[in-house]
């Protein structure tokens, strides 16, 4: 499978570096597959859909998942699946522009966003973004034993959810077995890529922001260590959602 790295959102927070919504577009035998989906056109047309966080993150106009898919030369109607690390607005908003696609997330994340919302989570899950798929598949359980003590749930041939809770109660990394090796999209399990790649400099503001929005703080170090172990595997490429330094090109 061929994997394309796309920018499906750009944000310019006033107190930190510019960040992106880094998503993957996979040429899969079942059709095109998006891993995370960044922002949607309706979000940029009416930023109020994003809630109070829009004032902090300041999304930039004209950068969405569907625009990125079109710019890469693909027909958006061919996107058959969207595999989501979690359901924060900057990861799920763009999926609404692909109404024909089946969404995939963990059952724990779907419950946290829809049926078991805690008071502290009400601002992060936006009702405008949920229920936008005609077909939702929520995947229960931990899956099968995988690398470095992690587990994996296969959602499509060659694509898995790897439960990595912390940022949210149902967060997962997503792996894609590409033609060039295994790509691991860590989502928001890490913000500053230097946590897993010691060749990069630390970005304090990203680390501070990660701590301010994490749902289960005790899982941060565990997730970072797992991603560092994966990064050290010679056949693995680890990326995350927002650190521009790990975006190819």
Tell me what you see in this structure:
21% of the residues lie in helices and 28% in strands. By secondary structure, the chain is an alpha/beta fold. It has a single domain, classed as Metallo-beta-lactamase, Chain A, CATH 3.60.15.10. Strands 1-2-3-4-5-6 form a six-stranded mixed sheet. A six-stranded mixed sheet has the order 7-8-9-10-11-12. The longest helix is centred in the last third of the chain and has 13 residues, at 220-232.
Q: TL;DR of this structure?
A:
The chain has 249 residues and is α/β, with parallel strands linked by helices.
The main β sheet shows up as:
6 strands, mixed
Q: Remind me, CATH topology?
A: Metallo-beta-lactamase, Chain A
| Domains, number | 1
- Counted by DSSP, the helix tally is 7
Helix and strand composition category? alpha/beta
The outline comes out as globular
What's the CATH class label?
A: Alpha Beta
Give the SSE string: EEEHHHEHEHEEEEEEHHE
């Amino acid at each position: 499978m061929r994997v394309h790295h796309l920018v499906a959102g750009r944000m310019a927070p006033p107190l930190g570096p510019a960040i992106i919504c880094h998503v993957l577009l996979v040429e899969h035998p079942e059709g095109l597959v998006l891993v995370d989906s960044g922002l949607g056109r309706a979000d940029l047309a009416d930023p109020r859909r994003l809630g109070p966080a829009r004032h902090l993150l300041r999304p930039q106009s004209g950068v969405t998942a569907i625009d990125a898919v079109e710019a890469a030369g693909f027909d958006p109607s061919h996107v058959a699946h969207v595999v989501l690390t979690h359901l924060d607005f900057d990861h799920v908003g763009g999926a609404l522009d692909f109404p024909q696609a089946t969404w995939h997330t963990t059952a724990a994340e779907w419950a946290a966003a829809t049926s078991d919302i805690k008071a502290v989570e009400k601002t992060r899950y936006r009702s405008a973004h949920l229920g936008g798929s005609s077909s939702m598949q929520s995947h229960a359980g931990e899956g099968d034993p995988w690398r470095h003590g992690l587990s994996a749930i296969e959602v499509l041939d060659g694509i898995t959810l790897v439960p990595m809770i912390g940022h949210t109660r149902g967060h997962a990394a997503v792996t894609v077995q590409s033609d060039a090796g295994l790509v691991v999209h860590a989502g928001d399990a890490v913000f500053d890529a230097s946590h897993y790649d010691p060749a990069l400099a630390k970005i304090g503001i990203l680390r501070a922001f990660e701590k301010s929005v994490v749902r289960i703080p005790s899982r941060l170090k565990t997730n970072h260590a797992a991603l560092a172990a994966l990064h050290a595997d010679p056949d693995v490429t680890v990326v995350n959602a927002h650190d521009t330094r790990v975006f190819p090109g």
